[in-house]
Give the backbone structure.
Amino acid sequence: MSIGRPAPELPKLSQDEILRYSRHLIIPEVGVEGQRRLKAARVLMVGAGGLGSPIGLYLAAAGVGRLGIVEFDVVDETNLQRQVLHGTKDVGRKKVESARDRIRDLNPNVEVVAHEAWLTSENALDIIREYDLVVDGTDNFATRYLVNDACVLLGKPNVYGSIYRFEGQSTVFCTDEGPCYRCLYPEPPPPGLVPSCAEGGVLGILPGLVGLVQATETVKLVAGIGEPLVGRLLLVDALSMQFRTVKLRKDPRCPACGTREIRELIDYQQFCGIRGEEETTGVPVMTVAELDERRRGGAELDLVDVREPHEWDIGRIEGARLAPLSSFAEALRSFDSARDVVLYCKSGARSAKAARQLQEAGFKRVWNLEGGILRWSEEIDPTVPRY
């Protein structure tokens, strides 16, 4: 299985390229033709973060001719634990710019095309259409479904990967022979059920492991060698260092690649139920400035931290008490409905859920701290660590 141009149309290698890729050329399975296929390939990376970093570095080193990068975020200090495309000097820079500079330094033969945008239903088909395949390095369900549906509609392979804490998975979706993402996950999980890496954390080395698998599968698809992960899901457990594969089957009832009911891209934020305004509807909000003012004025507040104990150990707002969201129902009896209750977490999403639980239990004087402890650290007390 190979993708891209037929052999007669493949670009020739320069003498410099022959020297650079010599360790590829002496592998019989790759050879000159395989390297020419890599040079002719047009690969789109969605995301230049944890997974995108090893994907971008190794595809560039391998000699992929055109590497597109879709990314709108900027480099943050918390990225540096795993996003090795970027360095300390890049903090505050746009990730597409940092990634482009690093890739050009690694291999100036690679054409880097920066798509400085979020991938959306409005632009996905136009962007993906210009590439031979997509490597999905995203970290949210809405974009995964978007990438999948766009790849099915356009007939482009989708090299998929995902990570969480110590576990990861990878496969190749959207080929003629195999299933798509919707065959594996017909419906997204309920909002908030699966924590993001920002909430749950990730071992910094794990995206290196999974991203390298994705880069390997991409090279195999482009060069037409080996047995790609089509119809097989590779599961990685870094804590026990075990790798295993499970078989995936194409679902004939799949609305994307089976019945072909999906003929256009939809609103994936709505599909996944993650509209931010819907998550906080009906929950009164208190700003960090208002909380600070009330505390300075001597107001008696029940300030409650709903993060997990290991996050509490990193830092906390002085005077708060801990009631983790994971066991919040058990803590309900500790609340006094006659007191003002202010709840906070890292950024405000989990504390909004806790506030709704209190409201459903009949509490009226409940507030969610807008922006959570991160906003408190940024605007009120910089001695509280950010993470």
